[in-house]
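Input record (one chain):
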Amino acid sequence: MREALETKLRTSLDATHVEVIDESHLHAGHAGARDGGRHFRAVIVSGKFAGLSRVRSQQLVYQSVEEWMGKEIHALSMKTFTPDEWTSGSD
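The corresponding structure, as predicted from the sequence alone:
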């Protein structure tokens, strides 16, 4: 699932950098984990985030994986960056 999520984010957002970490093991026994949903943390760099607020950028990410949310993915935390922010080290 981690690889599929990376591929989906890279493709749908034209991302230049995507890093996804599966943190499901940290949530063993959690309600979403019991139902099969996994917990992920992601770093995504995309030009599509240019001019968007942090919240709007994250909404764009959630839209790209909406068919998996609440099913294969229980939780997705993320940091989003434009290419300029990424190269300048902004957080």
